[in-house]
Design brief:
This protein is of the alpha/beta class. It contains twelve helices and eleven strands. A seven-stranded mixed β-sheet has the order 1-7-6-5-4-2-3, sandwiched between helices. A four-stranded antiparallel β-sheet has the order 8-9-11-10, covered by helices on one side. Helix 7 (161-170) links the parallel strand 4 and strand 5. The protein is globular, with a radius of gyration of 22 Å. The N and C termini lie far apart (56 Å). The protein binds pyridoxal-5'-phosphate. The site of pyridoxal-5'-phosphate has 13 residues, from helix 4.
Length: 347
Amino acid sequence: MNYSSLMRKHLLTVKAYSSARDEFDGDASVFLDANENPFDIGGNDHLNRYPDPHQKLLKRKIAAIKGAKVENIFLGNGSDEAIDLLFRAFCEPGKDEIIIMPPTYGMYEVSAGINNIGLVKIPLKADYQLDVDQVLSCVTDTTKMLMICSPNNPSGNRLHRQDIEQLLLNFPGLVVLDEAYIDFDEEGGFLSRLEQYPNLVILQTFSKAWGLAGLRIGMAFAHTEIIDILNLIKPPYNINALSQKKALDVVEKHEKVSEAVETILAERAQLVLKLEQLSLVEKVFPSHANFVLVKMKHAAKIYHSLVGDKIIVRDRSKVIKCDDCLRITIGTAAENTTLINALRKYA
Ligand SMILES: *Cc1c(COP(=O)(O)O)cnc(C)c1O
């Protein structure tokens, strides 16, 4: 795959900012190179110093846990930054377009809009699966990227592997596979197949199973040339020192993450059973994520009743193919019981 012909032409001549920490990152006792304040005024976290611009320690740990190589990993200020940088790297504003498959994650459209990138929407089929032929038939010279989300937000289902493979093999641009919920899916994702598909970019995040939505760390896994382009255009210190440190702490304790995932999956099974017993529930869609999409009688009205009871779920009833649907995140046992008790009152 010729990555330099895929990327925006003007970037070929852009040189990355070389920070003080890029030019020297060995061991030294006196650092007078970055115009930092020598005094750690805030306390003892050494926050007077700039963070590692390449997050080497954290990437090494992630690589070990995920079975990936450090040079295939990019870390962003949330997956949202990775999405924005992918568009800025590969899509010419006012000219190129991406394909999305609604109902899907809202940020693809927002970020494309901010970057003035064209958007082609090929809805998922009635069963929320990919319409492979339709997607491929809409590709033009200016179609640069395909955004696939599996397990899909907001429908919760995983997309058929063979369909994703078909698209990876036949789509001429980059295929961005958003695996934000992959830790909840026992079938696993495409990370082990990265070398097989040079056009594959996998997005994962610390925000869901890892329980660190507040830190803002998203991961992109891809061919080194793609990672190099993202590193070229990212703000030098895009992951702050506290986020790097806290993420390292949690990565060390990753069995706790597996325990939390087990608990959430067990709670999901309970919640689905209880939802299905309610007369106002028409359908609970099968989920491989930490939420369920639920079709209800008068979903918008129920949403507002729940707000009145201080319970917030996500109203997706105005979203294409999600008529009368609410998206409900799996909470603690107590939270889920509170939700069910409230819904029982309205039945
Ligand atoms: C929650 C979510 C993300 C995570 O975004 P962050 O910026 O990493 O918090 C990414 N993709 C999808 C589909 C999501 O639902």
